[in-house]
Amino acid sequence: MNLRIVTLNFWGLEAPLERRLELAARQLRVLDPDVVCMQEVRPHAGGTTAGALAARLGMVACYAPAATCGAGEHGAAEAGEEGLAILTKAALLELPF
Predict the structure, then answer these.
(1) What are the backbone angles phi and psi of residue 55, rounded to the nearest 5°?
(2) Which element (helix H / strand E) includes 50?
(3) Dihedral-angle region of residue 58 (phi above 0 means left; psi in -120 to 50 means alpha; beta otherwise)
């Protein structure tokens, strides 16, 4: 059995976000990965950028925050969080967190 894994650094919420989501979805459809490992995932539209991408691909997203910062810290314009996510074709059986 072969397992196709892709990594993707999503660059947070940098503009143009909707265009980047569409481009990422289009290219990931071509690659047809079983798993996508994402970095720099941010909260977005009541979910996360990983969730928005997973919805476009018919995948399941599992997100975990990795860092938080206050407004003005580390160059952030506003307080927030950033994390890692795994997108899979099937739901994960168990989450350790």
Answers:
(1) -60, -40
(2) helix 49-57
(3) left
Residues in the chain: 97
pTM for the whole structure: 0.85
Alpha-carbon torsion 61, 85, 56, 15, what sign?
Answer: positive
Mapped onto helix, strand or coil, the DSSP state of residue 60 is strand
- Residues 51 and 63 sit within 8 Å (Cβ to Cβ): yes
Q: Report pLDDT digits (tens) over 65-92.
A: 998 877 666 565 667 889 999 999 988 7
φ, ψ of residue 39 to 5 degrees: the values are -120, 160
What pLDDT, in 10s, does the model give residues 20-46?
Answer: 999 999 999 999 999 999 999 999 989
Of 16, 47, 52, nearest in space to 36 by CA: 52
Cα–Cα distance, 8 to 96 (Å, whole number):
22
CA distance 57 to 16: 19
How remote is the C-alpha of 45 from its chain's centroid?
Answer: 13
